[in-house]
Amino acid sequence: MTAAMTPMFSLDGRVALVTGARTGIGKAIAIGLAQAGADLVLLGRTPAVERTAAQVRAIGRRAQTMVLDLSRTDAIAAATNELLDRQHIDICVNNAGVIDRGPAIDISYESWRDVLAVNLDAAFLIAQQCGRAMVERGSGKIIMIASLLSFQGGLNVAPYAASKHGVAGLTRALANEWAPHGVQVNAIAPGYIATDNTQALRADPDRAAEIRRRIPADRWGQPADLVGAAVFLASPASDYVNGHVLAVDGGWMAR
């Protein structure tokens, strides 16, 4: 990268909110944004999110934490408003997500609602609150974490697939409304990434091998594989990119 190109990907002076930042993809993206120059607000379900904050501070960036259970959607607006009253947010990464595996005929309505609450309802509420301030300010970046199951139905993951189809649609809808106000809304659709959410798949030798054979890159992805896409979508380099769902999947969707 030339010196002239570097500022296009710099996040110096920006503040990023990342949900689900305790482990996995959220943690990797948070650290990657910090390495690109951003300060962080890290949201996690437990105080263990402080461990990610410590790594961000070790890079030399500021980090603050919020502990919030995103399944409690009634608490999201108040918590986000309290944050925005004291801290502007330039970049919002809606990463938090849960999955419940099982045949659709056996999934309880409570499980269905739990998945939708975290993966879709919370993503909308946080994007809405951050987006309102961004629209008023005339600039901002919102990055949703979608999935390959934003394009496909999957097996035994009906609530998750429905929620991630919803995330893709929400991304495009918000982009249409907020693009005239200088706010870019895009999504990253990870492929099969080695995280807690895919532990059950990786523990099944037959299913794990079947998945790997379908991936042209011939390996499962790692959380760090998402960082470049996140920095791009958070940076000035993506100022004319809006409403896009970027698959980072080792080539899965090309098969």
Structural notes for this entry:
With 255 residues, this protein is α/β, with parallel strands linked by helices. It has one domain: Rossmann fold. It has eight helices and seven strands, in the order E-H-E-H-E-H-E-H-E-H-E-H-H-H-E. It has a seven-stranded parallel β-sheet, sandwiched between helices. Strand 1 (15-19), helix 1 (24-35) and strand 2 form a beta-alpha-beta unit. The model is unreliable at 1-5 (pLDDT under 50).
In short:
By secondary structure, the protein is an alpha/beta fold.
Shape designation? globular
**Which architecture would the CATH scheme give at its second level?**
3-Layer(aba) Sandwich
Helix coverage percent of residues? 40-55%
**SSE order:** EHEHEHEHEHEHHHE
CATH domain class? Alpha Beta
The proportion of strand residues reads 5-15%
Q: What is the β-strand count?
A: 7
Q: Please give the radius of gyration in angstroms.
A: 17 Å
Topology-level CATH name:
Rossmann fold
CATH superfamily: NAD(P)-binding Rossmann-like Domain
CA distance, first residue to last residue:
31 Å
Tally of contiguous helical segments: 8
Q: Quick check: average pLDDT?
A: 95
Let me know the largest β-sheet: 7 strands, parallel
Summing up helix and strand content along with how strands pair, one would put the structural category as alpha/beta
Strand order of the largest sheet: 3-2-1-4-5-6-7
Count the domains.
1
Residue ranges: pLDDT <50 for 5 or more in a row?
Answer: 1-5
